[in-house]
Design brief:
The chain has 1 helix and 8 strands; from the N terminus they run H-E-E-E-E-E-E-E-E. The protein is of the alpha+beta class.
């Protein structure tokens, strides 16, 4: 027989449920069945939460840092190319320097790796009317026009 309160299996002669302590009535042929299980409302909530988390992660991963293409300085001395993986290449005096970039609170931060006698360099930049303007670093104030 089964406890009508918690559904635990109990001895047919038992007067109390050994699982929850509920008082049991003697079994008759009509009361020996197990009570129906309640439907759980947790599963749809868990599935909905999982879908929401996946959607948020997909949006974050698809955004990138927002720069793409090649920009050349108005002086023609420098240029920088950006790809969608937050990597960039700085061109100067016929040399190529690999680096990375990321969105910062007030623009972008470019970190260019040194090569040979050049040291690693960090530039801060903003985008203004489609042009990239260096606001910090060794080429401060240089305007780069998108090609």
């Amino acid at each position: 027989m089964y406890c009508t309160k918690c559904g635990a299996t109990v001895n047919n002669e038992a007067r109390f449920c050994t699982n929850c302590g509920a008082t049991l009535s003697p079994a008759t042929p009509h009361t020996v069945r197990k009570p129906a299980r309640r439907k759980s409302h947790k599963m749809p909530l868990l599935i909905g939460a999982a879908v929401l988390v996946i959607a948020i992660v997909a949006v974050i991963l698809s955004r990138g840092s927002g720069l793409s293409g090649t920009y050349t300085s108005e002086s023609g001395y420098y240029s920088v190319s950006f790809d969608s993986k937050d990597e960039c290449t700085w061109y100067q005096s016929g040399l190529n320097f690999e680096g990375s970039y990321e969105k910062s609170d007030d623009g972008y931060r470019l970190e260019i790796g040194g090569g040979g006698w050049y040291a690693d360099t960090v530039f801060d930049a903003v985008v203004d009317d489609g042009d990239l303007i260096i606001t910090g670093g060794t080429v401060y104030g240089e305007r780069f026009v998108k090609q």
